[in-house]
Amino acid sequence: MKENNKGAAGKLNALSEVRSLNFLEEIVEDHLEKGVHKSVLTRFPPEPNGYLHIGHAKSICLNFGLAKKYGGQTNLRFDDTNPTKEDVEYVDSIKEDVKWLGFDWARELYASDYFEQLYDWACILIEKGLAYVDDQTQEQIRSNRGTVTKPGTPSPYRDRAVEENLLLFRQMRDGKFADGEKVLRAKIDMAHPNMLMRDPIMYRTIHAHHHRTGDRWCIYPMYDYAHGQSDSIEKITHSICTLEFDVHRPLYDWFIEKLDIFPSKQYEFARLNITYTVMSKRKLLQLVNNNYVTGWDDPRMPTISGLRRRGYTPESIRMFADKVGVAKRDNIIDLSLLEWCVREDLNRRANRYMTVLDPIKLVITNYPEGKTEYCSAAVNPGEESAGRREIPFSRELYIERADFMEEPPKKYFRLRPGGEVRLKYSYIIQCENIIKDQNGKIIEIQCTYDPSTKPGEGKWRSVKGTIHWVSVPDAHEIEVRLFDRLFLKPDMDDLEEGKEYIDYLNPNSLEVIKGYAEQALIKDNSGIAVQFERIGYFITDNVDSCESKPIFNKTVGLRSNW
Ligand code: ATP
Ligand code: MG
Predict the structure, then answer these.
(1) 78 CA to centre of ligand 2 in angstroms
(2) Domain containing residue 58
(3) Which residue, judged by its Cα, is nearest atom 1 of ligand 1?
(4) Which residues are near ligand 1 (CB < 6 Å)?
(5) I need a surface site. Which of 276, 294, 351, 370 has the fewest CB within 10 A?
(6) pLDDT at site 460
(7) Using CA atoms, how far apart are residues 536 and 342, in angstroms rounded to an integer?
(8) Ligand nearest to the CA of 98
(9) Ligand with the closest atom to the CA of 278
(10) Backbone region of residue 56 per phi and psi (left: phi > 0; alpha: psi in -120 to 50; beta: other values)
(11) Per-residue pLDDT, 457
(12) Is 301 part of any domain?
């Protein structure tokens, strides 16, 4: 994706109009046509060990979107098989985020609800001579697995009798062994070209409290054993996961085949990567725990809760997921595409207000002191029902420091000594004089106004520049938090040798400033981000803002500044 948003997104727009089916849609249509399945059931299977990020949003949109398109349904299944890292706080946040994105799950399920069934099935595999208890240490198991070019060495316990295996597995369940003492392994092929098929571990002992099953279990199934069987129990037709799981597929199929249960199938697509962003929950957790950010919902985080606090809308995230498409090969998407999507959405929906974020005072010397009049403006030019606002105007205003230049370059159409500009929704003014402090810093600009130029009244006269303003008596002080990308490197999967992702943190990703806003902004209750005219989109910070101290987060600028 190029930096040039309009170009990139424009092309994508053109593409999506004629877009053919993605490869998953093709598979589903084929299955429905041939009667392989009568309906579609997908699942979104997060592990509750962190907050969801934009990569998960992609997966959510894909799973729910695919099922919906073909009249099917989607389960929300918590893949809660690792008690040491999981927590109900995460379960709650995940449910909130999926709902906020606009999706309803058919059933809320937990892999831990299947522990008994999974245990019974493991016993069946033992009885079939397809699983055994291994006493080797983790280290021995690893070193005996062989390499890609060398077959593994069978465990000395590989040929244990069925009865002994059943007894030992029962004892594992009953807590007779310490963590690491014994594992249950599938008996497949120690010379298999796919390393994951060399007698993979099915169960390990973890004496830890589980957020749902409490202390009932001390053996926990591994991902590979739990996931496919959970899919099968729910009769998931299309189990969609990311590409790195393609090597797990033979194992996924092996368990289902040997157990002779509902034949769920796994399909892989490329995971979403975004420039200047890390997306693993482990790394995001470190950012939180080490206070590099203020929490999972820090507006700089790529989490759904962070994006929400930043002012992203569910619509913009769904639009992004759609534009990214479904790829079969790993790639990296430019962050500017995500920004383009939210800009598109907010441009249509956001209410408009004037704010001045780097103020300089402007006095209209021929305007009566103490007088207030009102300038009428649409709250949202794209949405008539949002109504109009009456903006107070007076002799003293704030304008942006950047909208005045003493010695401007050519093509500078804003205010300059002797020059004219229009004050948005109001009069044309002319700069007569500037006042500086003893350091030479401009502290006041003195202008005159042309009373015949108020929009809708008198005669229309146009000038090249228009600038925004806030009337001093009406100005409400606001705190504004400006964000930059969290990391300095575009491809955070490709780090220089000896460096860690933390080494690329942008030290200037947060800037806090004070500004002034028209009163109407403070009373806005649209519930979504608003446009600060000529600046960008901003949203009330839902954590720190209060009536006496309004705080706004910058969602995105009006145009890409990279
Ligand atoms: P992480 O590596 O960030 O911890 P994960 O894959 O371990 O992610 P899970 O909770 O297991 O996180 O993921 C739930 C679902 O979301 C899985 O189906 C997974 O494939 C999908 N998913 C996770 N990250 C991405 C991503 N970057 N792009 C697309 N899908 C993703
Ligand atoms: Mg995972």
Answers:
(1) 11
(2) 8-110+226-277+309-343
(3) 280
(4) 45-47, 55-56, 58-59, 79, 241-242, 271-272, 279-281
(5) 370
(6) 80
(7) 11
(8) 1
(9) 1
(10) alpha
(11) 84
(12) no
So which residues are the catalytic ones?
Answer: 47, 271, 281
Q: Name the pairing type of β-strands 420-423 and 466-467.
A: parallel
pLDDT of residue 287: 98
Tell whether 252 and 397 lie within a shared domain.
no
Going from the Cα of 47 to the center of ligand 2, the distance in angstroms, rounded, reads 6
Which residue blocks in 70-143 are alpha helix, DSSP H?
Answer: 88-100, 115-127, 138-143
Q: Indicate the helix (H) or strand (E) that contains 55.
A: helix 54-69
In angstroms, the CA 339 to CA 206 distance is 43
Query: 223-234 and 249-259 helices cross at what angle (nearest 10)?
Result: 60
Tell me what pLDDT residue 2 has: 36
pTM for this predicted structure: 0.94
Q: Which residues pair with 412 in a beta bridge?
A: none
Q: What is the pLDDT of residue 125?
A: 98
**Rg value, the chain, Cα:** 31
> Among 87, 224, 227, 242, which residue has the most ligand 1 atoms within 8 Å of its CB, making it the best to mutate?
242
**Burial class of residue 465 (count of CB atoms within 10 Å of its CB; 0-12, 13-18, 19+):** middle
The sign of the CA dihedral 186, 192, 198, 202 is: negative
Task: Reduce the DSSP state of residue 390 to 3 states and report it.
Answer: strand
Q: Say how many Å lie between the CA of residue 295 and the centre of ligand 1.
A: 20
- List the CATH number of the domain containing 263: 3.40.50.620
- Give the separation between CA 492 and CA 497, rounded to whole angstroms: 13
Distance (Å) from CA 506 to ligand 1 centroid: 25
Please indicate, yes or no, whether residues 261 and 339 belong to a single structural domain of this protein. Answer: yes
| Residue 162 and residue 269 share a domain | no
Ligand 1 pocket test, pick from 47, 56, 80, 241 with the greatest ligand atom count within 8 Å of Cβ, gives: 56
55 in any annotated domain: yes
Q: In the chain, how many domains are there?
A: 4
pLDDT averages per 10-residue partition of the chain, 562 residues: 42 57 97 97 98 98 98 98 94 98 98 98 98 97 96 98 98 98 98 98 97 97 98 98 97 98 98 97 97 98 98 98 94 96 96 98 98 96 92 98 96 96 97 97 97 86 95 97 97 95 97 97 95 98 95 95 58
Q: Which ligand sits closest to the CA of 76?
A: 1
Could you give the CA distance from residue 374 to residue 356 in angstroms, rounded to a whole number? 18
Residue of minimum CA distance from atom 29 in ligand 1: 271
pLDDT at position 458: 74
The Å distance, Cα 329 to ligand 1 centre, comes to 16
Ligand 1 atom closest to the Cα of residue 59 is 30
CATH classification at residue 411:
2.40.240.10
Domain-embedded: residue 291: no
Which amino acid, 203? Y
**Residues 536, 429 share a domain:** no
Locate the ligand 1 atom nearest the alpha carbon of residue 240 and give its number: 18
Residue 297 falls inside a structural domain: no
* Same domain (yes/no): 386, 326: no
Instruction: Give, for 14, the enclosing helix (H) or strand (E).
Output: helix 5-17
